[in-house]
Structures are given as C-alpha cells and as structure tokens.
Amino acid sequence: MPAPTTDGSPVDQMLAILDGLIAFPSVALTPNVDLIAHVEDLLRPYCSEILLSHDETRTKANLFATIGPVVDGGIMLAGHSDVVPVDPGDWTSPPFTATRRGDRIYGRGTADMKGFLACVLALVPRWAALDLVRPVHVALTFDEEDGFHGAPILIDSLADAPRPAVAIVGEPTGLKVVGAHKGCYEYTTTVTGMNGHSSRPAEAVSAVHHATRWIAGLLGLEEELVERAPAGSRFEPMHTTTNVGVINGGLARCTVAGGCSFDWEMRPVQGSDARFVKDRIAALESGLLAEMRAVHPEAAIETEAVCEIDGLEWEESSPALDLMRSLLGGDPPVGVVAYGTEAGLYQAAGIPSVVWGPGDIAVAHRPDEFVEVSDLEVCLELLLGLGSHLTD
Question: 128 with 68: CB under 8 angstroms?
Fold first, then answer.
C-alpha cells in the first residue's frame, strides 16, 4: 500500500495500514524481513534516519526510525513485529486477514500489538509535518513472543544513536497506564540418565523420575516465594511465580527413560527472588546428580536460559509516567501487570518506560483475537498529542 499522508482521515489510514500488517504471518521464530521492509517503505518518506539490526541469519530484523532531528531527548514508540502461532481451525475468520465485524477487528496481532503499530504509522506524516525540536522514534523488534531475542540486539545497535527521553511500549493494556511488571525468566532443562529394562530399574537411571523430583522441588518453593513477597506488592499474585509448561521424555512404558526435557519459567517480582530460586534448585540438583552418577557417571542435568528479562521496576518519579499524565490529563491511575514486556529492557538501558496501548490482553494469544475500533481511535488521539511535547 502507498505511504500514509496528511490527507484524509487518520482513522481510515490506520485501518488500511492494519489490514496490511495483519496480512504478514509474522509468527515468532520465523523470518520477519518482509514485514520490516513493508514498514520501512511506509516510513521512508518521512524519516531522517532508519536503522536496521539483524539476527545472525539476517532473516529477522529490528527497525529503529527517527522522525525529526537526530538528537537526544525524543519519545520512542515501541512494539514487536511477531505474533504467537495459530491453529486456523480454532478461528471463525482467517487469522491473517483483518476482518471487521461490527466495532471489532479480528485477526492475529490486532491487539498484540499491530493495532498500536498501525496507529503510530498512520500519524508519522503528521509528526513529520511539524517543526520538531525533539524526535519521535519508532522501534520495532523481532521474536518478543518467544524469548525477547530482538530487543537486546536493537538496544546494542543504538549505542551511538540519540537517546530517547522516554519510551511508550504499546502492549494491549486496555488503554490503562502500566508502570511496572514482573520479570520473565524462561528455561529448558534437560536430564540425561541411562536406558534400561523397567523390571530392573536399579540398574538404570530414569531421567523422567529425576526430572519429576527436580520439578517437584521447583514447584515446592511456592510457599516460601509467597512469604518473600515485598510488603505492599502491587502485583496479582503478589509473589514470584513458577510454572512448568512442557515435558518430554521416555520411549515406552516398559523402558527406563534415558532422557527427559522440560520447559519452565519464573516471573520474579524482585531480582533477589530469581537468585533464591536458582540457589535452591542448584542445591537440589547437586543431590540428584550424586544419586544418578553413582549408577551412571555420565548422567547430567543441564539448563539452557531462553531469556532472563528483568521486570519494569516501579518508579515513583518517572518521566514516562509524567508524559502519560500530561497526555491523558489529570492523575490517571497507574497499574501493574504480571506479564512481561520489552519495557524492562528499555528501562535497564536507561530509557524510562511505560506500557500503554489499545486492546485487551485477555484476548491476546487466543483464537479470534480482536481489537475494538474505539480503542484504536483513542490511541490515535492520544498519540497525536505528542506533537506539542516535541515542538517547544
């Protein structure tokens, strides 16, 4: 589609842009360079600078575009290009077609988070037409949905670039301001034992049995994690949580399992909880390994970190929250959420951040994901107000 302009309704342009974005099946861990090239084409007429950064395969790209002067102090509008997988049979309309039914637009990524990106792209010509003193930046990453792989590469690529003063991460918050969220630590643990006949289990080492003891130890930390919750924690639940989502292992009912792997996570409310979990699991693991290696010296338990993303920490005085208060007027409530976003990464990189965007997180990652058109209209109106913060 042609690049957006200042002619016509921004709502109509936003809806047309959203149609184009949803049509890209940019599922996490798959190439996204076609989508990034499409966004770059829309932005190119209005940008003073566009920086791309890639993964090692160069099939995935981040985009960082600047509208206005290439100086410090601008506002970064941040999102991710990827979406979660779909099973088309669970949908009542094609998942990669933006389908309008009444006041809703259905399609994978409409809420999480291509709706926000469409609003941003529709307004770029209007910001570019202003006499900006400070820039607007558009940041778009890859593989946020499966390990936050793109954002660290984007952040590294900006080492010598102008530093934004604040970031708005446009995750679907239902247009509510989010000032903090938990961290997201994701892992795969592989247990290697030794196969054997199930009638003589003592002569083998069951990876499945030892994995279940490891998992039981992890889940058994819940009571202590509840007790460790900071006084006055704003989160729900208030404490750090753990979860084992996938387990694979064994060959047959009558065979002692030689291998087992499982995917697990924790969502810490504070960094000390992550250290606590790791220390307790290391102690448990040491005992399990001693038992396993007494029978099979090559037995092993190995954990691969998929991602270790710190949360967005609560800051009573934050330039990002101040910006949202100014845009929304008055003193809107500021909440917290349990899910993770890239805002914690940007905050850790020295960019004060807030999470705010159209759509409901309750419909994200589900069949028939949708966004309300009224949410997108509110998003457009608020983002249009950024101009007054960048021209004086």
Answer: yes
Measuring CA to CA, how many Å separate 203 from each of 195, 288, 300?
9, 16, 17
104-106 vs 99-101, strand pairing mode: antiparallel
Q: Classify residue 384 as exposed, middle or buried by CB count within 10 Å of its CB (0-12, 13-18, 19+).
A: middle
DSSP notation for 274-314: HHHHHHHHHHHHHHHHHHHHHH-TT-EEEEEEEEEE--B--
Residue 205 Cα to chain centre, angstroms: 38
Judged by DSSP in three states, 256 sits in strand
Q: What's the whole-model pTM score?
A: 0.86
Give the model confidence (pLDDT) of 257-286 as tens digits: 999 999 999 999 988 999 999 999 999 999
Bridge-based pairing of strands 300-309 and 334-337 is unpaired
Active site residues: 82, 144
Q: Which amino acid is at 276?
A: F
AA identity, residue 161: A
Say if strands 259-267 and 241-249 run parallel, antiparallel, or are unpaired.
Answer: antiparallel
Domain annotation for the chain: domains and CATH numbers: 10-181+311-390 (3.40.630.10), 184-309 (3.30.70.360)
Closest to 301 in 3D by CA, of 245, 261, 266: 261
Find how far residue 1's CA is from the centre of its chain: 28
